[in-house]
Amino acid sequence: MKNLHGDYYLNGNWMIEFSRATPIGGTLLYYQRGAEGDSVPETIIGRGPTTEPLVVELISQEPNQGVEYEYYLPNGQSRQGHYWSYGACLTLGGVSIDKSDPNSVEALAGQTIVLPCRVSPPPSSTITVEWRRDGVPLSTHRHHQQPNGSLLVGPVMKSDSGWFLCLATRQRERDHRYIYLSVSEGPSELAPTSLPKHVQSPKFSIEHSSSSSVEMRSGQTARLPCAIIPPSALDSVSIQWTKDGRTLSDSRSIQHSDGTLTIGPLKSDDSGVYTCTAASLHQLEQRQLQLRVQADLQITTAPNNIRVPEGSTALLPCVVSGDNVSIGWSRNGVPVRPDGRDILLSSDGGLILNKVKASDEGSYTCNAYTGIYSVSATAE
């Protein structure tokens, strides 16, 4: 048995053949076991309330069909489960949860929030993610698992406060993390209670007529729409934006009263999948938009006017900054095509002319383009 930091408090193994009591997180735990070969099962009994979540690990030295366990809570209720255990066995591929995300989330009642649990590799037919609270799997009502394993919860209530467990499984490999959700009362909690009991929140939808793919350049400001239909339903809807499954925290991201998200000035790493989640007490809708941010397209080293002796080599530089940039050259408006011998392109986009002759004279233009954007520079 260990705490969330991985510190072992109680280790039941064949080296311990006596009963012992250990204080853990405010609870006094009594460990008991019979002698080897005895039919008396291993038992851990706790007295007093626990002040921190604890992890019980059941491990065997050889692969088996799993270990059945049962534990009793102080209120007399019991919980049963099945914990797959493993020991000295080889498994191909594993599963892990990113522990760099915060292990606590604060929210106001009525908001929709994301409990981060980014699983690698992502959930699939062979990788499952299960969310639990107080040992009980969560219902799909108000709880929606995201593609990366994180959990969307909303609208939250004060009673949602507590420890949540994210458990990722891949065959016999497992990883887990605990996240504490703290919900405070806020103005949003008062709105639903002001409605008569027989009146439900109006049904709504998210407008999907605009393109789900947005392409912008660095330095610009992006507007990602999340229009609620009908607009009158906005009063009873909570809107939350996430990027790649994570809550937005950058001050450059502003959510407006109509649900629109503006981001600016844009950076290259703002590219990603943005999800607008709209939730009421009885409904949840989502829309995803792909934002692609192209780095600012610039010619940082432009070709300059040069004179070279006939028969020598001429180098016209053209260094460009940007993402996925294509470079082409033209002479007096006619495309110049490399032939691998007398006309070459350098790795950074420059034009190399070998054995120049009088007919090579003219105005040379470097054309750089990416997507719908282009820049050019000319030299003679």
TrEMBL record:
Question: Under the GO molecular function aspect, what terms does this record hold?
Answer: cell-cell adhesion mediator activity
> Can you give the residue ranges of the Ig-like domain?
74-184, 202-292, 297-380
Q: Which SMART domains match?
A: IG (SM00409), IGc2 (SM00408)
Keywords from UniProt, A to Z, are:
Immunoglobulin domain, Secreted
Q: Where in the cell is it found?
A: Secreted
What is the top-level taxon of the source organism? Eukaryota
Which Pfam families is this protein grouped with? ADAMTS_spacer1 (PF05986), I-set (PF07679), Ig_3 (PF13927)
CC annotations in GO: axon; extracellular region; plasma membrane
GO terms under biological process? axon guidance; dendrite self-avoidance; homophilic cell adhesion via plasma membrane adhesion molecules
> What InterPro entries does the record tag this protein with?
ADAMTS_spacer1, Ig-like_dom, Ig-like_dom_sf, Ig-like_fold, Ig_I-set, Ig_sub, Ig_sub2
For this entry, the protein name equals Papilin, proteoglycan-like sulfated glycoprotein
Task: State the organism named in the record.
Answer: Nothobranchius kadleci (African annual killifish)
Gene label: CU634009.1
